[in-house]
UniProtKB/TrEMBL annotation:
Quaternary organization: Homohexamer.
Protein name: ATP-dependent zinc metalloprotease FtsH
Gene field: ftsH
Domain AAA+ ATPase: from-to ranges: 49-189
Native source species: Postechiella marina
Coiled coil: none
Sites where the protein binds ATP: G57, P58, P59, G60, T61, G62, K63, T64
Superkingdom classification of source: Bacteria
Cell compartments where the protein resides: Cell membrane
Homology family: Belongs to the AAA ATPase family.
Function: Acts as a processive, ATP-dependent zinc metallopeptidase for both cytoplasmic and membrane proteins. Plays a role in the quality control of integral membrane proteins.
């Protein structure tokens, strides 16, 4: 059915408060919030509002969260799809899905379109020539470029895409008037991890004196998604032994479990 072609959220609750750290990236996307809320402020001076921005960074660093927060801050609908959904698509379906997505977003404008894993659609042409689905991928990419080029100056739809492989993207995507802004979303440093812990510890019943500084120091290399996962694992570990609150040791056990998983993950890819 049509409803399943992409996700649509007309009442996004996520705001910048939910995004810990990423101060630089938040500052950059604040401009997009402003474009969506006060387009006339820019267009009366003859400026053209940008159509697209690319969020670039490792997995789990909050790219989806940040894009959603832009929609939440601007109070506009959020349309999203993931590039990886196109991988096994039948001929013609990818392009028509893109067309439908843009049609809906324009009807509900001002709005945000979010395309996660855009590299699955937007890989440089000519690579992976062995794959039979290559033509389909190119059709989908071409449709996306056509839609973005077709935006009139009054179409207040902004397309945000995310990738952890900007280096493999087709340069046509980055041309002026398309995804001509790149915003970097990096792994959190120590103080950013503290801020992320604060967000994800909020719903937990914590033992007295639980030291966020200590937890942040124990988790170098963790992404925001890893920290969210860690907090949840710690709560589950504590619950298993019928504790009344989540203790330091539960977090350390959860760290061991997650680091074990991360090591297995990187061994698989090395
Ligand atoms: P991927 O590249 O794997 O799609 P992503 O960068 O889009 O990842 P998200 O899906 O936004 O990452 O993050 C997953 C979850 O991790 C979020 O829903 C949130 O719970 C947590 N998270 C990640 N980054 C942050 C952050 N900066 N602040 C708070 N929570 C975060």
């Amino acid at each position: 059915s049509k409803a399943k072609l992409f996700d649509q959220n007309t009442e996004v609750k996520t705001t910048f408060k939910d995004v810990a750290g990423l101060e630089g990236a938040k500052e950059e996307v604040q401009e997009i919030v402003d474009f969506l809320k006060f387009p006339e402020k820019y267009t009366t001076l003859g400026g053209k509002i940008p159509k697209g921005a690319l969020l670039v960074g490792p997995p789990g660093t909050g790219k989806t969260l940040l894009a959603k927060a832009v929609a939440g801050e601007a109070k506009v609908p959020f349309f999203s799809l993931s590039g990886s959904d196109f991988v096994e698509m039948f001929v013609g379906v990818g392009a028509s899905r893109v067309r439908d997505l843009f049609k809906q977003a324009k009807e509900k404008s001002p709005s945000i379109i979010f395309i996660d894993e855009i590299d699955a659609i937007g890989r440089a042409r000519g690579k992976n020539a062995m794959s039979g689905s290559n033509d389909e991928r190119e059709n989908t990419l071409n449709q996306l470029l056509t839609e973005m080029d077709g935006f009139g100056t009054k179409t207040n739809v902004i397309v945000i895409a995310a990738t952890n492989r900007a280096d493999i993207l087709d340069k046509a995507l980055m041309r002026a008037g398309r995804f001509d802004r790149q915003i970097f979303v990096d792994l959190p440093n120590l103080s950013e991890r503290k801020a992320i812990f604060e967000v994800h510890l909020r719903p937990l019943k914590k033992a007295k004196g639980l030291d966020i500084d200590f937890l942040s120091k124990q988790t170098p290399g963790f992404s925001g998604a890893d920290i969210a996962n860690l907090c949840n694992e710690a709560a589950l570990i504590a619950a298993r032994t019928d504790k009344k609150a989540v203790e330091k040791q539960d977090f350390l056990d959860a760290v061991d479990r997650i680091v074990g998983g991360l090591e297995r993950r990187s061994n698989l890819f090395s």
